[in-house]
Design brief:
Number of helices: 23
Helix content: 40-55%
Strand content: 5-15%
Oligomer: single chain
Radius of gyration: 24 Å
CATH architecture of the largest domain: Orthogonal Bundle
Number of domains: 4
CATH superfamily of the largest domain: Transferase(Phosphotransferase) domain 1
Strand order of the largest sheet: 1-5-6-4-3-2
Shape: globular
Amino acid sequence: MLGDLIRRRSSPNAGASPDLGCRYHKEPKTINDDYHAEKRVLGSGMSGDVHMATSKHDSKHKYAVKGFNLHGLTPEARQELANEAEIFLGMDHPHVARLVDVYESNTRLELVMECMTGGELFERIARKKRFSEKEAVHASWQMLLVVNYLHSHRLVHRDLKLENFLYESHQGDHLKLIDFGFSKIIDPDTTMSMSCGTLSYVAPEVLNKSYTSKCDMWSLGVTVFILVFGYMPFSGTDRAQMKAIMKGEYTIKTKAWDLVHETTQDFVKRLLVVDPDKRLSAEEALQHPWIVNRAHAKSEPVHDDMLAALCSFSDTTLFKRSCLQVAAWSLTPEQRSKVRDEFLKLDTTGKGTITLSELREVLKEHSGHGAEVTEDALHTIGDSNDEIHYSEFLAAMVSTQIALNDNLLQETFRRFDTDGSGFITPDNLRAVLGSTFDEEVLSEMLAEADTSHDGQVSLDEFMQYMKKGAKYEAIATTGNGTATKRRHSQCESCKNNCCLQ
């Protein structure tokens, strides 16, 4: 089955990661159990339309659903589809649109993604004609971060373009990458030959059908070119474009170029280099003066509260950490926005993870956080490579920097309650956590929240367990019926929510 292939190939640590186990669903569970499909079409691709959907558990939240027909697919086609789903499931970065759920049946595969309401980068540049250099460098820095994340994890996107970067909201400028249909996992020196991508953005070596991940940097160069100069570098008929691309002869309109600083021009020129060996890598591009000296580069230092939360996360129990990791995938964009900048500050290399050495260096500059605590924290939170991924960082922030609320707790419980029984059982934990833990460990984990001692955890028991000692945000109603938010920290001894009244 497709899901088995994805699980087998996703990650060597997939069995120990609760987020994968609670996001991939197979029959009898279907997308209709959790989402209301809407007629509104958000976009179209090779596989068909992307539709809007609403959560049945929280109607305020909108999602984008991309569906694939499995009936009649050849083994090769199923392999390609599995590749996209596998890669998308593993994506975990502040500048990648999040894959919330996957549903597989005999005939359909449905991908439920966060809904990016701000529209395409293409649409915004079409309205503005061209970006100011401040706007362009901020967008380019964000795009570079995600490309460097992909390349440092042996991934090549192969279809970078304006249309595949979306804004999280109309009011903000936070960009995220979508569409991993052409993405591929490769070794650093592996060459590829499949022709793919959009002609106006493809690199010369792609046309020659022998290329590496450096093809993404050419495509990024075309994207940045359009942002800063306001027109396409290669245009005309397909034949004319191919000829110009092969020679690296992009159109120079003097009036537009004269408005752009030489450092900006140099950045674009060093990406649109025909020889990929002489083209900037993502890591090198992040060190280019235009990026390093961007207007907003002088950011505030990492907040002490964030560091304290990250270090103290290692003191929580295995079950609590697992619950918080699942909760991290149920956070709203607004909740994630409160802490994602801190993650990017800690990721000093721009590779999309926080390493032991990076965290150690930051903590040296902050009093009250010893190196010994740092080592313990990272080895507890991080993966086998001593890296903290974005969702692990978010999990460490939940209940301390990101307040818990009933909606978040109910959604987290639902993801553990895989069979919809209304309880979390050892079988449910096994389904979410994989085969990493034996029966004794699973029972011990549940026992932490099982106050009724019946071998399972109800919703009430789960919510009481998660609220203990946590920052909690409840919705209270004033005398005139107006809903207001109040933050509480529940008493350790409270069994009846008395401190939430």
